[in-house]
Amino acid sequence: MLERSYVSSTKHLSSIRVALSAGFITSAGLLLTVDLSVLSVLWCIATWIALGTIWGLLSHCRNSLEAEVMASAAMNSAVDVHRREGEFLSSMGHDLRQPAQAIALFAATLSAHPLPESSRKLVTGIESAVQQLSEQLEAVFGIAKVEAGRVSCQLTAVALEKVFALAVANQLDDAHERQLHLRRVTTRRHVLADEAILLRVIERMLTHAMSITKEGGVVLGCRQRGAAVMIEVWDSSDGIPAEQLPAVFVPGSVYGQQLADRGLGLVLARRLAALMQGHLTINSVSGRGCVLRLTLPRVEANL
User: Fold this and answer.
1) Given a cut of 60, is residue 2 above it in pLDDT?
2) Are residues 121 and 14 in the same domain?
3) Is 199 found in the same domain as 124?
4) Are strands 181-184 and 217-225 parallel, antiparallel or unpaired?
5) Residues 42, 46, 48, 50: what is their CA dihedral angle, to the nearest 10 degrees?
6) Sign of torsion, CA 91 95 98 103?
7) Do 141 and 184 reside in the same domain of the chain?
8) Where is pLDDT greater, at 296 or 52?
9) Which range marks the domain in which residue 193 is found?
């Protein structure tokens, strides 16, 4: 248990470091272009400072986790350390988000100024790297909060139509940018869930489906099976190789490393689903797309 906890945490931090490296490299490329203004140079310096701050905090996180693991091994209290690791990472969330938000603000400011085409491409690359970093940070700290027991879950009767409509509306801009069709199938069903957590899980499901779909679209719907309701997200992607399916929800898997968020979004979604007494699975046929399936208890509307 202790070793798995430590390996999982360090894999999360390593994934974020990959995104940081991309930010360093891209901003360095921008600085090396010959037609930069003074504003661009100052922006690069500010970006390096912010990235360096995040890198330093991540190093501090890793060192602290190592110290926790060594201390707990001596005390033989793996479960308690697993909880404290989650609490520590969760408490670091604000400190790590601030530099990332600052970089995004710098990039937006620089992008608003007239720039040569070569420099603008580099700025776009930095914005993309920061977006990936932000997604990974949100997933990592979301997982940490769950593991630390800091996520409040109140199970009530939730109307799926309301949650479906909101989830699709929140993802429409991303779908249009990717030139994908995103639609939902209307429903009158209700499930036993926490409405806010359910929305987060469905949004993660939709984000994953769109990230692996190059053309076509994504459909959100549900079906009833006995006392359960299965919420499903279908996509028209090329599917996932059969040998990679068992590890889709495992942090640091080969499949996860191919995704912008390093697969952490699905890891978080499954853990949030478990909080609601639900279960998140995935099925895929190579060349015929994937289906993410969240199974929750069915309830009556007047519960």
Assistant:
1) no
2) yes
3) no
4) parallel
5) -170
6) negative
7) no
8) 296
9) 156-299
Rounded Cα gap, residues 17 and 201, in angstroms: 25
- Tell me what percent of the residues of the chain surpass a pLDDT of 70: 65
Instruction: Using the predicted structure, report yes or no on whether residue 117 has a pLDDT greater than 60.
Output: yes
41 lies in the same domain as 120: yes
* Domain total in the chain: 2
Q: What is the pLDDT of residues 135-190, one digit of tens each?
A: 777 777 777 788 777 788 999 999 999 999 999 999 999 999 999 999 999 999 99
Residues 163 and 285 in one domain: yes
C-alpha span between 161 and 167 (Å, rounded)? 10
Q: What is the pTM of this model?
A: 0.67
Written as one string, the DSSP assignment of 110-166 is: HHTS---HHHHHHHHHHHHHHHHHHHHHHHHHHHHHHHTT------EEEEHHHHHHH
